[in-house]
Amino acid sequence: MRMVPIPPGSVTLTDRRTERSWTVDVPAFELGAIPVTDEQYRDGGELPAVEVSWLDAVRFCNTLSERDGLLPAYRLDGSEVEWNRAASGYRLPTEAEWEHACRAGTEGPRYGDLDEIAWYEGNSGGRLHPPGEKRPNAWGAYDLLGNSWDWCWDLYDPAVYGEYRVLKGGGWADEHWSVRVSVRRRSHPTFRVDDVGFRVARS
């Protein structure tokens, strides 16, 4: 699992639905250079692993940690998941970590020209592509925008949406306006669909 180092920093997150903004300090961490692939997830091919639920992704993080001799980040009890933040194992990035890593020191809606960095509705040909074919951001991460959405650890808005978790990044079927750093989507932790996958992080 190739990881890239993400330096510490702070990021201001925004929610267009509620018009709320909040700033989060992000310690240094590591992030997968590309999304988890079918080869890694289900002994398949080189495409990003999609049709993966949030709970599937959490379980895979623990399996990967155990394989690599690391302390798993999550304790699972059915659908209840507790994150041990002191653990050395793989985990999902928080929304703030994901957005800080995606921006890579930039401040605009994207870290580069859309067609150069992302597969989306305008250039994907209606399908997923192998990760790493587009230009990476300044910190060496590929496909943070476009191709497949990434699950994040965070609850989206528990007062309104309950257990729904945050999705970031946009996918191959999304129009250009949806493939931006600040866009946040939500879904139920058991939901699986053909444009949602994940990438791993480590503290």
TrEMBL record:
Q: Tell me which domain of life the UniProt entry assigns to the organism this sequence originates from.
A: Bacteria
Which Gene3D superfamilies does UniProt cross-reference here?
A: paralog of FGE (formylglycine-generating enzyme)
Pfam families linked: FGE-sulfatase (PF03781)
Give the matching InterPro entries: CTDL_fold (IPR016187), Sulfatase_Mod_Factor_Kinase (IPR051043), SUMF_dom (IPR005532), SUMF_sf (IPR042095)
Q: Which ranges carry the Sulfatase-modifying factor enzyme-like domain?
A: 43-202
PANTHER family in alphabetical order: FORMYLGLYCINE-GENERATING ENZYME (PTHR23150:SF19), SULFATASE MODIFYING FACTOR 1, 2 (PTHR23150)
Q: What is this protein called?
A: Formylglycine-generating enzyme family protein
Q: Which organism is it from?
A: Amycolatopsis silviterrae
The opening ranks of the lineage are:
Bacteria, Bacillati, Actinomycetota, Actinomycetes, Pseudonocardiales
